[in-house]
Specification:
Blueprint lengths: L5 E3 L2 E6 L1 H7 L8 E3 L9 H5 L3 H12 L5 H11 L12 E4 L2 E5 L9 H5 L2 H11 L5 E7 L3 H10 L5 E8 L5 H8 L6 E7 L2 H12 L2 H9 L2 E4 L6 H20 L9 E6 L4 H11 L4 E8 L4 H8 L1 E3 L20 H8 L4 H14 L1 E3 L2 H4 L5 E5 L2 H15 L5 H17 L5 E5 L7 H9 L7 H12 L5 H4 L10 E4 L3 H9 L2
Parallel strand pairs: 5-15, 6-7, 6-9, 7-8, 8-16, 10-11, 10-15, 11-14
Antiparallel strand pairs: 1-2, 1-3, 4-5, 12-13
Amino acid sequence: MSDVMYSSTRGADLKVKASEAILRGLAPDGGLFVPDHIPHLDKSLEEISALGYKETAYEVMKLLLTDYTEDELKNCIEHAYDSKFDTEEIAPMTQAGGAYYLELYHGATIAFKDMALSILPYLMTTAAKKNNIKNDIVILTATSGDTGKAALAGFADVEGTKIIVFYPKHGVSPIQEKQMVTQKGDNTHVVGIEGNFDDAQTGVKKLFTDNNLAKEMNEKGFQFSSANSINIGRLVPQIVYYVYSYTRLLGEGRIAKGDKVNFVVPTGNFGNILAAYYAKAMGIPVGKLICASNSNKVLFDFFQTGTYDRNRDFVLTSSPSMDILISSNLERLIYHIAGDNAAKDAEYMKELTQNGKYAISDDMKAKLTDFYGNYASEEETAEAIRNLYKETGYVIDTHTAVASSVYSKYVKDTGDKTVTVIASTASPFKFTRSVMNAIDNADESVDDFALADKLSEMAGITIPAAVETIRNAEIRHKTVVETADMEKAVRNFLNI
């Protein structure tokens, strides 16, 4: 079995092993690391269906992270998927309203980011040892709400690391913000910015590619890495749960050998649905990859027209983790459908930076047949929550509701009755006000925690520890800066 090597989407010259790609986060030319080939699963889907989540994770990840030894990888997996998750299954599925909801929110911060960010610190510290890195790794991350807390929880007090998270001060839910600003750990720093997620992400990318800053940091014993889904160490663990959900359906006799399954993924940054695309390349029989957007429907328009255009108003919605106009991970797909052509990809990304848009060729458009894109308005999102609860008693959050609504549109458009798995990306308790508004017109005078109590009573679900523990927690992070001062905030924290 040949090693999988990683190169940049914008330049084919640099080839690195998985551990180095994970350490670097972003390629030096600003591109994203991509594998030189996608290996096929080397166990049959029937064999994998008899395995638990950890064993499935090993079978997937060993093929893509080929320079990690069996012991190293199993050690990372063992530490990641433990009692931090409130269910032994790690990612259970619930059948409701004609689809299977893959619940990816049973980890420490009740969002799907836990699935990858529980393991990333271990992959990274193992990679540092393998590559004889003496510097402290500084995780630099922009978040639209969920990545931030999941990364903070993963890296808090991990030796040899520091973590700085930037988030849009007025662009996350109250519970998301409280989760971040109450984070403990001397190596953690949370900064609100006066701007939206795209501003935060652009600022972070700028810091990553600042060679003078990198040189200065190196002299002081630091180097940057990323916990965003731009890091291949984030993406590989996400492939696991698509393989896991398919093989569960197979093992339970809900589908037969060779049957296709559709995946519906609510997405802003495109990482989560790209993981499903890679799962298909590894041998999972996938029918359609249904890309669900909210009112920031830049991806829907791209799948309709072949033009990616971020020149539009940014909309704050009830599904803030998807309030994104620059979908970073789409770059990996562009690279692949261009025939793994780095020069072509670099051209498109230059156009995006200069003009805010690019249009792909007809040949490339023809390679998007795996995908179906649609979007849900705020009203449709609320309606999806309300209807599913009234019909089944099952409660979903706003992001999952975007996916549920788009799935209804897909069935109406196509009549396709293929067994379908909806990625349920966050607990309804993370967005209690929006969820309660949808079901029951939430009382404006009541805070989000009192609403969580009401939701718990109504739906008969226990309030997750992630919400209970922050109810009266001390606010530890109070820094808010303009986007122009992001570098200053980093320097202050690192004392450089």
